[in-house]
Amino acid sequence: MPRPDLNLLVTLDVLLDEGSVTRAGERLRLSPSAMSRALARLRRTTGDPLLVRAGRGLVPTPRALELRERVRVLVHEAEAVLRPAERLDLGALDRTFTLRSSDGFVESFGPELVARVGTEAPGVRLRFVQKTKKDTTPLRDGTVDLETGVIEGTLAPDVMTRPLFTDRFVGVVRREHPLGSTTVTPATYASGRHVHVSRRGLTEGLVDEAFRPTGRERAVVTVVDGFGAALALARASDLIATVPERQTENLREGMHSFSLPFPAPEVTVSLLWHVRLDADPAHRWLRECVLSVCRQRTDQTPAAGQPGMAP
């Protein structure tokens, strides 16, 4: 069965409102003959004459009277669908957003983000979930609205991205650790026992690649799947943790952080979302909130070994 021409709904709405082929044609900017042809098509489509002559005018049939309000509602709803989105009212926004992030992001940026969202849109709720693997499926199926992470390789064309900040790795030990009271050299760094972070259980990563040109290797004795776990072990032992500086600022509180004695590897942390949400005003507002908080927070974070870090 052929699909009906939905443009006829607009024509029918105007005809039933005017009760005149001539006046309906004037409103739709159609000639009398074109309007008559449109009425003929409507009669064939609905199987009803719709408007019949009574004296010098036209009157609606019972079927036309039955359809009049339904057609009016359908046309108005269609116009609303095709109209640009109205201005976002943050005060009235009632919505839950799910953000998936790596270990340390919520601890470092979550408090400021929650505070800002609560001030601008009190009805918005943020749901943070842990990122356990690199997989954009949650963005596609709608279970996650936003995601943060380091992009490796080429993303699918339906995933949008925007850089948040660049992070560099620093070394971290407990305050009483021998490295806490001396200048760290490649030799002293290599002589320590290290905890390595890898969600895949690997014993080497970016840090080892950057350290290799010194001709030394670090001794990785423990592998964990998150920066928080690595810092917890380093806080309670003589293990050395090497973690991203910006994302772990709050997690490193009370510990001694130091610049690596070799060119520190850097990573760019980005914001990711699915293309279907790109034009959504509420989602766009939340993206700008995350971007603003991250930029403000990273601008205020002192470098390792600078004032503001643990001695």
Describe this structure in words.
The radius of gyration is 32 Å and the shape is rod-shaped. Helix 1 (7-18) packs across helix 4 (62-82), helix 2 (21-28) crosses helix 3 (32-46) and helix 5 crosses helix 10 (281-300). The longest helix has 21 residues, at 62-82. The protein has 311 residues and is of the alpha/beta class. The protein is built from ten helices and eleven strands. Helix 5 (105-120) links the parallel strand 3 (95-101) and strand 4 (124-130). The strands form two sheets. Strands 3, 4, 5, 6, 7, 8, 9, 10 and 11 form a nine-stranded mixed sheet that branches. The protein has a two-stranded antiparallel ribbon with strand order 1-2. The termini are far apart. The protein has helices at 7-18, 21-28, 32-46, 62-82, 105-120, 137-141, 186-191, 206-211, 227-235, 281-300; strands at 51-54, 57-60, 95-101, 124-130, 146-150, 159-173, 193-197, 219-224, 240-244, 256-258, 266-274. Mean pLDDT is 89; it is low at 306-311. The chain has three domains: 7-82, Winged helix-like DNA-binding domain superfamily/Winged helix DNA-binding domain (Arc Repressor Mutant, subunit A, Orthogonal Bundle); 92-146 and 274-300, 3-Layer(aba) Sandwich (D-Maltodextrin-Binding Protein, domain 2); 166-267, Periplasmic binding protein-like II (D-Maltodextrin-Binding Protein, domain 2, 3-Layer(aba) Sandwich), CATH 3.40.190.10.
